[in-house]
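During the no-cost extension, the postdoctoral fellow (Dr. R.K.) reprocessed legacy sequence entries with the updated structure-token encoder. One reprocessed record is reproduced below for audit purposes.
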Amino acid sequence: PHWATVSGPESAPGEPPKIERFFFVATRASTFLGAVSVEPQRAGELIPVLRDPVFREPGTFGFINQPSIFGHSIGGGRRIDLDVSGQDLTEILEVAGRVAGKVLQALPLKDGNQLRPKPGLELGAPEVRVIPNRVRLADNGVTARELGDTVDAFNDGLRVAELTVGSERLDLVLQGPAKNVIETQGIAALPVVTSSGRIVPADSLADVVLTAGPTELRHRERIRTVTIEIRPAPGVPLEAAIDALKQEVIQPLRAEGLPPGIRINLSGTADKLTQTWNAMVLELGLAIVIVYLVMAVLFESFIYPLIILLSVPLAAAGGVAGLVVLNLYTFQPLDMLTLLGFVILVGIVVNNAILLVHQTLHHIRDDGMVPTEAILEATRNRIRPIFMSTLTSVFGMLPLVVIPGAGSELYRGLGSVVVGGLSLSAVLTLLIIPPMLTMMVGGLEKRGTSKVVSPAPRVAGARSEPAPGE
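Re-encoded structure tokens follow.
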């Protein structure tokens, strides 16, 4: 019923959008699928449609998400990796199973959270292990490497040399007859030549065990690792999900006790979140410092730029208010692009305060007005340019917030921050900057006019007036 070609492109009210295209790829280790919505703006509503059949299969986990433009791959984006690392694979899987159970309690699947163990929580691939017996090997003068080479030669073949024929390189492979091993149990009877020239079966030098192994071997920092990939629900902030995992999963497991050599760490997007946040704080501080220094050079004062920078907190409050208003209608997280809006505001909102301060100083220094009259006249003269520039910026950015489109979720938060910050700052700047100027400008300008350089006294006899005719 979800196919657009079968039931039409229009969906009934309350139903998810119709599927325009669909693909499905299966490999030996995993499967991935995707669908394209007839209505691109509603593509996220197809997540339950694709997720529910996956989890109906016993022992199956899967991620269904709308890929981000900035994701590095289909699995990129808001993903937290919880790595369980160690040397013993059995202990790793046991701890990973406990981790998955606690993750499902902290972030339930019914709330829209998703979980996927990679490569898996069980040994799902049949495996034959040939475990060398060192005593028997020593008695027969055979090394473990020689035993392994013999077993390889009778299975996939043993590469012994590389030959060059013309311009081509060819592998010289030593391989036993294919008919020697026609069943799994036949590996125990593979012939092994000892140092004395005797031929003995492989099970006389090693233990051949039929067991199960992993479908995939994963290593992080050269240590065997099982990764629990967690994708929080869209309404759960990434930082809140990380805190929940630390407090409800990692700390309880460490308190219960982990096997020796087993480590649990957060990686993936969790690591990048801290790095990006630190970089964003640095960029915000650097933007404020640069703006302050530029204004200090222009006004030849370190006090006037401080008065102007009072508009920055006002803009930040307006940006938060704009984001809150947007969340009343649609969910918009405080992501890094949204935080970038606050950095942009630092360079924009100071313009209104600069107009007021500059015009005030012009009236005082050039027109000879008293500070109070200069401030009132500057406010009266600059109120129209302030609202003209603010309204053009706000209405220019407003369609990005009000009229959504495909991909608009990337910049919708940034637009709401800029619109809210500019709107509130334009009003409050006129209420705060003039009173601050009234308190400060009188003393600053008196101090500046008092510093007049007096002419140097003339020294008697140093120079005389020239006589007529000279």
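The first helix runs from residue 4 to 7. The chain is about 45% helix and 15% strand. The remaining legacy entries will be reprocessed before the final report is submitted.
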